[in-house]
Amino acid sequence: MDPESLLALVETAHPTLRRRPLTDRPAVSVAPGELLAVMTTLRDHADLRFDLLITHTAIDYPGENRFELIYLLYSTVHGHWLIVAADVDRTRPVAPSVCGLWPIAEWQEREAYDLMGVLYDNHPDLRRVFLEDDWVGFPLRKDYQDEYMLELPK
Amino acid sequence: MTVHVRTLDELLHAPLEADSELTTQEYLVNMGPQHPIAHGSLRVVVRLDGETVKEVIPVPGYVHRGVEKMCEHLNYRQVIPYTDRLDYLSAIMNNWAVAKTVETAAGIETSDRIEVIRTIMAELQRLQSHALWWGVTGMDLGAYTAFLYGFREREIIGEIFEETIGARLTMNYIQPGGLMYDIKPDFAAKVKKLLPYLQDCVEQYETLLSGNVIFQERLRNVGIVDGARAVALGCTGPVVRASGVPLDLRATEPYGAYGKVQFNVVVGSIGDCWDRYYVRLEEMRESIRIIQQLIDGIPEGPYSTIRYNVELTLPEGIHYGQVETARGAFGVLIASDGKQEIPYRLHFRSPNFNNLWVVTAISPGWRIADFISIQSSLDLVIPDIDR
Amino acid sequence: MAITRLDAAINLARSNSLWPLMFGTKCCAIEMLMATGAAHHDLARFGAEVARASVRQADLMVIAGAIVKKMAPRMRLLYEQMAEPRYVIATGSCAISGGPFMYNSYTVVRGADEVVPVDVYVPGCPPRPEAFFWGLLTLQRMIREGETIREPGVRRKPVMAALPEDVSLHEIRAEIRAALANENVIDVTQAANQKPWARKVREWIQRASLR
To answer: In chain C, which segments carry CATH 3.40.50.12280?
Structure first.
């Protein structure tokens, strides 16, 4: 399916979606409250069938006080791509977990929690995955401070 | 008085008595971070009931270096050497992922010559990686000879890399807009001479290991994962292809010179350890086929279309590009702000991180020795999991 | 007299039967422990091929790769569990100083010698197997001369230097940058001969070969 008709189909199913500009693959932006409903449609709709969650990550925008959650979906049935973006509040970064739809999300969300500090509602096992449990702070945030880190001398 | 002498068969098949004093105890075994079967420093906590695996809890992070944070301070050329150090057995293919993403985003054109050389190098590295994996799997399952044979081919292919690239492991070869170095005049002749030898080697691998009864017993019907479940668990590469899903980025969205060559996507049938083993062996044959089709017609021309000191600034937005490495889809997600020549945020989609978690789903119920087969058949490279 | 001679004999025996620990964290492990252990390079020529999975049976720890904060206490534990005398070779830039991960990394320990005392450093990223053999031969020589027996935790200067004296990394970097700004293709041999440090390197090589 070509990107334009794919986006049109997704928009018909969920009219509240907005297209996310400035991406090299078709992308939509959803509110975190609707994320689960949209994701369920994307996985189960016969013409969409996004069965592979390629990756999930978060981008920190401290100036705009938000995290942008990026879900990159691929359909092994139809061979098309979709980026789903969701903005969450930076001071209270809570998003619904999509573990129920794609089991791999459990660990990808753990990574996003570990490095970016995004919290996931209804996650079965939200723990740090790479860093130790007593680590302070979330290193991939732009305002992360660590006195151990060295700046590259200019 | 008569003594009944039991046979070994009788002993092994004797039913356990219900009132036997033999009881099993549940306990935890830490495999790693330093452990003979851990290829690197992955820690896997295994909950055992006797010898039966009840639960597997992988604990990665013993090589987590924070590469994604470091990349926020580096320009796109400087990112490439760090991708070598993620999945170091697919270094050239990892370089390619970054180069491809940057080229697509910045609109840099490459030539036929560059794409053909990239493809040949990537396939040579896939051969090298699979040969190494074959040897290490043999060693994990108790066949030390396999290790020696696997590393023999690694050295022989490595000589070609050394001659062209000057490195044995961390290649830093494919750059945005071209290659780091040109190939030597006798490159094609040397590779052509090597191909029949590698073909013989794959046959030799079959003779040495595939037909071995013990080896087959330890792999066949062990750790089965069906296609839908493998996809849901995020697997890519030979792991998901072994379960019968023909997901190969070289075929589904051809890049480089893959669109010009004939090759088969190798798929397994049931997704057990044996399928994962055999898919990789067949892939070695396919890689040889791809190189055979390309090696005669390497076009002439420059090896880079842009100068190495040119400033690369990507347009604002999210750019994602990915390639098929020896272990699956390696992707690079770059969020650029359009102003700086460093990424605002860079995320690596590592195939090993996503392939690892399938062990939690397929290991329970198997014996601890089968767990070794399962882990070995996934072909994990730990620094790529941890990044 | 008799005691020193016995020591010499023991040291000779120790130096020729080093049992490395099967321990690798990163890329260097492929080159240092696996490629050298295989037939092409063959670690057995130096009597050090008996890679042991248990620390109790090993006396040589090859630190192959970056050590991160999560790994550091575990590596220290492994070191403490090894029976004395025990030797440590740090291979590769990451284990020597943090290498490529020195700056802007929040986890990498800048040098394995922050955690355990290191006897021999082998530079490279990763070093070639031949470089590792040279490091191993250096360690064997040190053991024979009784140099390695010392207070634990005492740091020493690297016994193998990557650069000759009087040449700093900044000089070389500036040279490379200047060259890249002018030319896209460089004849490496020709360019190297024109460098101000070329004479120093030649002298250094000559000195080293005379020694």
So the answer is: 2-146
Q: Could you give the number of structural domains in chain A?
A: 1
Residues of chain A contacting C103 with CB distance shorter than 8 Å: 149-152
Please tell me the distance from the alpha carbon of residue B116 to that of residue B122, in angstroms, as a whole number: 10
Do B23 and B73 have their domain in common?
Answer: no
Residue B96 has pLDDT above 90, yes or no: yes
Q: Same structural domain for residues B77 and B37?
A: no
Number of folded domains that form chain B: 2
**List of chains touching C (3+ CB pairs within 8 A):** A, B
B55 and B91 share a domain?
Answer: no
pTM for this structure? 0.83
What number is the ipTM of this complex? 0.90
Same-domain pairing of B13 and B81: no
Beta bridge partner(s), residue B317: B336
- The mean pLDDT value for B364-383 works out to 88
pLDDT tens, position by position, C121-176: 888 888 888 888 888 888 887 777 765 544 444 434 334 434 455 656 566 556 65
Cβ atoms of residues B312 and B208 within 8 Å: no
What is the rounded CA–CA span in Å between residue B31 and residue B45?
6
Range of the domain at B187: 68-381
- For residue B303, the distance in angstroms to the closest alpha carbon of chain A comes to 27
Chain segment B185-204, per-residue pLDDT in tens: 888 999 999 999 999 988 88
Residue B224 has pLDDT above 80, yes or no: yes
Report yes or no on B3 lying in a domain: no
**Quick one: fold of C2-146?**
Rossmann fold (3.40.50)
Instruction: List the single residue in A with minimal CA-CA distance to B337.
Output: A22
- Tell me which DSSP letter residue B177 carries: T
Whether B225 is covered by a domain: the verdict is yes
| CA distances from residue A23 to B88, B321, B333 in whole angstroms, order as listed | 29, 11, 11
Q: Is residue B72 part of a domain?
A: yes
pLDDT of residue C156: 42
Sequence-distant (6+) residues with CB within 8 A of C135 are C89, C91, C120, C121, C122, C127, C160
Mutate to test the interface with C, among B30, B31, B34 (most CBs of C within 10 A): B34
